[in-house]
Write a structure and sequence with these properties.
13% of the residues lie in helices and 50% in strands. The protein has 4 helices and 18 strands.
């Protein structure tokens, strides 16, 4: 039986996790050692958990588990062994409390799903559990408490929300799944890049660092510094997601140019394609279409590739940079 059902908003948090993929019948033998490995890694690095243990199920399947298990943290976790940096999820969620043995969780989720249907809300594509009380602190399974979280799709609106939307107070924006994806960029990064600025020019190599931070869970802003053959460079990038347009947006500026780049983008898996327009590389030519493509290779590595469209309609790559988390 579930209690304390509500629809609320929660903020994402940095986390230390291990990702596990397994048949459902192996969870009891594999999840425990993973939790212990995360605990030991945090202890060795002198980092205290900033909240309860959680499991974020990335793929919902009747036969297999694919999830991250770990703890939210306030410190900067260094990847070690199977432990990587990730994020405890956030956003608008339907939440409930289940008390009892973990064997009853499947039925609790089913009961929770029926309640969601009655609230006229549509759950998202993942779920997560927070283990508020468990065997590490209580030997009686009947006393164990698990918080169930269904992220809600941006089109969902509960009966309570619908009443609030008719009032005079503007609704407060809440993070969506797309904002959570952007927040995987938050942190300290180094980069190595190579650019070709013209057909007769040699490749220009660059190195530097970038700090990406969150603005209210809805935007990320990256401030970069780099060294190129032309000298030092500073840059600022902003990225967000507009649920009304169902599009990503953002801007980019750099100390070596006067143009303000304005992004419009879409996400496909872990690849964010940002379209923009800017000065052509040929002097005197009109502005040209460009694309910056951000691909998350893992939680600790991402790839930025830049393309320009030539007058004949072909897209030509002119820059590529690899970012690695510090």
């Amino acid at each position: 039986m579930i209690t304390n059902r509500e629809i609320t908003t929660t903020m994402p948090q940095p986390a230390a996790v291990i990702r596990l993929q397994m048949p459902r019948n192996q969870i009891q033998s594999l999840m425990g050692p993973a939790i212990e490995e995360v605990r030991q890694t945090l202890e060795q690095q002198g980092i205290e958990p900033a909240g309860p243990l959680f499991a974020h199920h990335l793929v919902l399947s009747g036969h297999e588990f694919d999830f991250e298990v770990g703890y939210p943290v306030n410190g900067n976790v260094r990847p070690a062994g199977r432990v990587t940096r990730s994020q405890a999820p956030g956003g608008r969620v339907a939440r409930a409390l289940y008390q009892g043995d973990y064997a009853g969780l499947y039925g609790a989720w089913a009961e929770f799903g029926e309640w969601l249907k009655q609230q006229n809300v549509q759950p998202g594509r993942t779920v997560w559990e927070r283990y508020l009380r468990g065997p590490e602190s209580d030997s009686n399974p009947a006393s164990w408490q698990t918080e169930l979280n269904f992220p809600l799709s941006e089109s969902s609106q509960s009966k309570e929300d619908a009443m609030e939307s008719t009032g005079t107070t503007a609704p407060t924006a809440v993070p969506q799944e797309q904002h959570q994806w952007l927040h995987r960029l938050v942190g300290e990064w180094t980069f190595e890049g190579e650019a070709v600025m013209g057909p007769d020019q040699p490749p220009m190599k660059s190195t530097g660092s970038e700090t990406v931070r969150s603005l209210g869970g809805l935007w990320v802003m990256g401030e970069g510094t780099g060294n190129t053959p032309g000298g030092a460079m500073q840059s600022v990038i902003t990225l967000g997601y507009d649920p009304a347009r169902k599009r990503f947006s953002g801007t980019f500026i750099a100390s070596c140019m006067t143009h303000l780049w304005i992004y419009d983008g879409e996400l496909n898996g872990d690849v964010l394609t940002l379209s923009c327009e800017g000065p052509a590389m040929t002097p005197g030519a009109p502005n040209a279409p460009y694309k910056d493509v951000i691909e998350l290779k893992s939680n600790d590595e991402r790839l930025l590739t830049s393309f320009m469209q030539t007058p004949d309609g072909n897209w030509v790559q002119f820059m590529k940079a690899t970012y690695r988390r510090k």
